[in-house]
Amino acid sequence: MNIPLPDVPEVRAVGLPQLTRGFDLVDRLDLPTHLKVHGPLAPVPGELLARLAEGIALRGRGGAGFPFGRKLRSVADSAIRRGVRPVVVVNGSEGEPACRKDTVLLNRAPHLILDGALLAAEALGARTLVVAVTRDSTEISVRAALAERGLTNRRGRSLRARVVRTPERMVSGEASSVIRAINGGPALPPGRRSRAAGSGVGGAPTLLSNAETFAQLAVAARIGADRFRRSGTDSEPGTVLLTVSGAVARPMVVEVPTGVPLRYVLRLAGAPPFPQGVLTGGYHGNWIYGPAVDETVVSRASLAAVGGSLGAGAILPVGPETCPLGEALRVASWLAAETAGQCGPCRLGLPAAAGGLADVIGGGGPAALEALREVTRAVQGRGACKHPDGSARFFTSALSVFTDDLAAHVLRGTCGRETTGVLPLPLPGYREAEKAVPSGEKMLIDWTLCQGHGLCADLVPELIRIGPDGYPTVADAVVPAHLRGRAQRAVRRCPALALRIERTRLPAPGTALILRQR
C-alpha cells in the first residue's frame, strides 16, 4: 500500500497552540502576519538566553535530545577561547520518511524558526547563519523568509544568511553530514565523530540544532519561562510536535503539551483502538507493545519507561491486520539502502541484518534468528556515524516487542498475515542525483539457473551472502548508487546467467516500467 507522507500533512493542536499559532488563519505566516500573531521579539543577552533555555529544560528536538543551554554555553566558550566568530546552523534536513514536523514549521512558520536562530546568533556574536533544508517546498519558503527580512549572503553585511540544500536521505540529516555539506562536501557523515561546538562550519565553533528547537526558543523568549512552564509536565514543560502516521486514518502533525495520554493522540489521528505495537521516535526509534499505550503519556520519561523513545517525534501505530515483522523488514531494507558506504557495520552489517530478518520471516527457524541477533550485535557501537546504531535499535526493538509473531515465524514459518505496507517509505527512485543514494534498482536471482558458484557474493558482499545451503541470498534492499558498478559486474560475471538487476521507474502515479539489465 505504501503511501508516502506529503510535505505538509494536516496540522492539529491539542490545547492552546504555541508553535502552530496562526495556522488556522493562513497557510503560511509571512513576516507581517508572523508579527501580528506572535508579536515583536527583543534581543536576549547570551547568559540570559542560556538561563532561559535551562529554565524551560529545552532539549534538542531532532532526536538526540541534548540540552540546548549546555550546547549554547559550549559554543560560546569555544569561540571566546579561540577568538573566532561562531556560526549558527538550523538543521531543517528531514530525510526520514516518517517525519514532517520540521518541514511543516519551515513551510508554514519559517519566521518563528528564524527568530530563535537570530536570537542565538545575536547572543553568540555570530556573523553567519545557515539553514539546511531537504525539500523544494522548504527551500522556497526559507528563501522567501530571508528575503522578507532583508537577509542575504552578501559580503559586508553584519549577518550573512544562506540556505543549503541536502539530499532526502536518512544519513544526510545527521549533524556532521549537514556541516560537511555546508563546507562544500557531500552530505554524508565524515567517517569520524567530532563536536560541532568546537569545530564545525569552516572550522569555527558551530551551534547546530533542528528547526523545532529554535522555534521553541523563540516562543519562550516571548512569553518567558514561567508562562512557558504552565503547559506540559514539570520536568518536560511546554509542547512538542509529533508526526503521526502508519495505520491511521489521517496522517498529521500535531502539537501537544507533554503529559497528554498517547492513546488520545492516536485516536485523534484515527489509529486502530487496539494496535499491535507503536513505533516511537521514528525509524531510529523503539517499538512499544500495544497495551503499553494505555499507560503512556507524551514525554521522554514516560515513553522510556515502556521501552519507547520520543526521538525525532514520529509516532507510527501498526494495526492487527498486518504482519508487524514484515513491516519491520520493509523499513529495515530501506535503512540498509541508506548506508553512506563508509564503514563496515553500515555497508556490510545492515544489508546482512535485513537479509537475516527476511530469513527469519521466511521460516529460517531458530538458526536464522540466532544469526540475525549475532549480526545486529556486531553492528552496534562500531559505526562511523549514528545510522548503524539507530538501525540496530530498530531491529532489536522489533524482535523484543513482537514475540508472538516472531515465534510463529520461527516455529511455523508464518504468522498468517500479509504485509500491507502501512509504514511510509519513499517511492522507488525518489532521488538519484547524489552519490550513494538508493538507485531504485534491485538484484534478483533466477533460481532455475543458479548453480551456487558464489562469485556474486565475493563481488558484492554488501548485498549478497552465501546461505547455509551454499546458495546465495540477496538482501531485500534497493541497490545504493555507489554499489551499482559492482552489482552490474556481478551480473556480467555470473557463470550461470542467473543474476539480474531490475529497475522500477515511476513516470507517473500508478505507472511502472520494468527494465531488465544483463
TrEMBL record:
Residues 325-369 form the NADH-ubiquinone oxidoreductase 51kDa subunit iron-sulphur binding domain. SMART domains: NADH_4Fe-4S. InterPro entries: ComplexI_51kDa_subunit, Nuo51_FMN-bd, Nuo51_FMN-bd_sf, Nuop51_4Fe4S-bd, Nuop51_4Fe4S-bd_sf, Soluble_ligand-bd. One of its GO terms (molecular function) is NADH dehydrogenase activity. This is Oxidoreductase. Keywords: 4Fe-4S, Flavoprotein, FMN, Iron, Iron-sulfur, Metal-binding. The keyword Iron applies. It comes from Streptomyces qinzhouensis. Its cofactor is [4Fe-4S] cluster; FMN. It comes from the Bacteria. Belongs to the complex I 51 kDa subunit family. The keyword Flavoprotein applies. GO terms for biological process: cellular respiration. SUPFAM superfamilies: 4Fe-4S ferredoxins, Nqo1 FMN-binding domain-like, Nqo1 middle domain-like, Nqo1C-terminal domain-like.
